[in-house]
Amino acid sequence: MPANFLPSLVGSMSVGAAGNPTVAMVEAAFCHHGLHWRYVNMEVPPAGLADAVRGARAMGFRGFNLSMPHKVAVIPLLDGVGESAALIGAVNCVVRRGEQLIGENTDGKGFLKSLQEVCHPRGKNIVMFGAGGAARAVAVEIGLVGAKHITVVNRGEQRGRNLTDHLGKALALSVAFVPWADDFTIPADTDIVINATSIGLYDAEARLELNLDSLKPNMVVADVVFSPPQTRLLRDAAARGCRTLDGLGMLVNQGVIGVQYWTGVNPDPAAMRRALEEAMGV
Ligand code: NDP
């Protein structure tokens, strides 16, 4: 038993927090590394967020994760935000540094960590479907490490243009927006294809409108959707010889980065992935 009987606390503030499988994943990291820490799931309605953050501060929480809509609403309640969180305009991970609560965004960083295991995006041509919160986080991180060109394909034109305008102005990136109509043909010089929409979430047969013949074996195809991990897009891409990356890797890696931020320990991603898969039943 450690000298201080009380564990260090971190947690997750979400709307509808029941059954959050990331609890098992983060606690598995603490257990695996003998850390006297706990990760607590907290259901926080939007109207209660300010009180919840004040409470976490008063109770000495070492940090916490946030889900939507808290990712944006939390920013004015914090003492500062990291570089990419500021560029993304959303915080999913708060870290106590001294007496300050600092907001970070580990979603895009988690994606990048997964991607770098198979292919570094520096100098690469990227096609990304989607322009919502996950797409914004992914695009900022791959932009910050030097992607050559990002084509954003999105159904909603305004949201797509907002994202490409932001990436062009704030990061001086080479970007293009293509409104998504019918089956999209991936340009032949594309290196990395990313689904950052919610198409496929909880629906293994949901189809991305894409000309599958334009997927070539030299392309990496990544999905942010983590349930089911093998989406229809990834199965189709693998059948055409592409290297594929599932959204579980992104989810595990955002947890890995969170544990690093909070505890200073580099956790074992394999132990965390095992616990997550078990909790999700996949
Ligand atoms: P948002 O609601 O912010 O954005 C959703 C995006 O999906 C928009 O671009 C939307 O297009 C598009 N979309 C949804 N349905 C359709 C459809 N039927 N046809 C075409 N486009 C569609 O959601 P998030 O960005 O927050 O989340 C997206 C996905 O990322 C979710 O599945 C989420 O679970 C996953 N995610 C995974 C993480 C991980 O760690 N693996 C972390 C964070 C998110 P439009 O603008 O036209 O509405």
Q: What is the number of helices?
A: 10
End-to-end separation in angstroms reads 34 Å
CATH superfamily of the largest domain: NAD(P)-binding Rossmann-like Domain
Basic shape: globular
Please state roughly what percent of the residues sit in beta strands, choosing from under 5%, 5-15%, 15-25%, 25-35%, 35-45% or over 45%. Answer: 15-25%
- Describe the sheet with the most strands: 6 strands, mixed
Total discrete domains: 2
CATH architecture verdict of the largest domain: 3-Layer(aba) Sandwich
Question: How many β strands by DSSP?
Answer: 12
Share in helix? 25-40%
Averaged pLDDT: 96
Look at the structure and give the CATH class of the largest domain: Alpha Beta
Quaternary: single chain
> Which ranges are low-confidence, i.e. pLDDT below 50, for 5 or more consecutive residues?
none
**Strands in their spatial order, largest beta sheet:** 2-1-3-5-6-4
Output the structural class. Answer: alpha/beta
Instruction: Please tell me how large the radius of gyration is.
Output: 19 Å
What small molecules accompany the polymer chains? NADPH dihydro-nicotinamide-adenine-dinucleotide phosphate
Spell out the helices and strands N to C.
EHEHEHEHEEHEHEHEEEHEHH
Named CATH topology of the largest domain: Rossmann fold
